[in-house]
Design goal:
By secondary structure, the chain is an alpha/beta fold. It is built from 13 helices and six strands.
């Protein structure tokens, strides 16, 4: 059983779901391993995404776990069989693993919902805006690391530009639209880009204005990644030491409710578009 040195977040998620299934069946890892003619270490490798699992073995485990959810089993089989080597693979060893994991998650998403309060969403950023964001931290990144980050961010937009674009909705606070991360020219070009994306018809933008009363969610930022089934959704949240991938069902339920609450605080899409137009004219 071949092992991986650095499993992707998607591979880890597959193992996590198999572990959840085993726990629900009340079986120990050693008992599950015996079903496959393996040992506990090999079972652990599968459940941590360090080793892959074939369709035959996955279905055998699901049968012994008495999992009644055929849709879930089929979705996990599809994940296990996926051998996609997307464009993000060219950045392996160049950018941190989380950059690759985020691009892969977006590539496979059935829909994307995002909330931002301080920066324009990454999927909508122009190169100049993204460069200003990446160039700000201390210590500054050398150009050899800065430019690949900008390139990677631009290539992530493939999910919005391909033949069958991923449905994308974002809630943006007015602050994110007004903060000048660079100069006014860059800011105006950025807003024009957002308006152009709206006009293309597959991106929905809702704005929360400064004047909105009863809004105390300015610290909430997230990307909600839709899976093939609701239980395979994922929430991505930036943390001090990197991006966290959240998949616990109780947390997913909480974030769904929070997204809906934030959506109610935002303007509808057409007033939001007009709002962005007004800010653009002010620059």
């Amino acid at each position: 059983m071949a092992t991986r040195r650095n499993p992707t977040a998607r591979q880890v998620r597959l193992g996590t779901e198999l572990r959840k299934m085993r726990d629900a069946a009340g079986l120990k890892a050693t008992e599950a391993a015996a079903l496959l003619g393996a040992n506990s270490a090999q079972m652990s490798h599968i459940e941590f995404g360090i080793a892959g699992v074939s369709e035959e073995r996955l279905r055998r485990l699901a049968a012994h776990y008495a999992c009644p959810d055929e849709e879930l089993i089929d979705a996990l089989v599809a994940m296990a069989a996926d051998r996609t080597r997307g464009w993000w693979e060219e950045y392996r060893g160049v950018l941190p693993q989380v950059f690759l994991d985020m691009a892969e998650a977006e590539h496979h998403a059935t829909f994307l919902r995002e909330v931002v309060t301080t920066h324009v969403p990454g999927l909508l950023q122009t190169p100049d805006y993204a460069r200003a964001v990446f160039d700000y931290p201390v210590p500054e990144l050398p150009k050899s690391e800065l430019e690949p980050r900008v390139e990677h961010r631009m290539k992530r937009r493939a999910v919005l530009e391909r033949g069958n674009p991923t449905p994308y909705e974002t809630i943006v606070h007015e602050a994110a639209l007004r903060i000048l991360v660079s100069d006014r020219q860059v800011a105006r070009a950025q807003l024009v880009e957002i308006l152009g994306e709206i006009e293309r018809g597959h991106t929905t933008v809702r704005v929360i204005p400064f004047t909105r009363e009863g809004f105390a969610g300015a610290g909430v930022e997230m990307v909600y990644v839709g899976g093939p089934l609701p239980q395979l959704d994922t929430v991505l949240r930036d943390a001090p030491h990197g991006t966290a991938f959240i998949d616990a069902q109780s947390q997913l339920t909480r974030f769904r409710a929070l997204l809906n609450k934030l959506e109610k605080a935002a303007l509808d899409p057409v007033p939001s578009r007009d709002f962005i137009h007004r800010i653009t004219k002010e620059l």
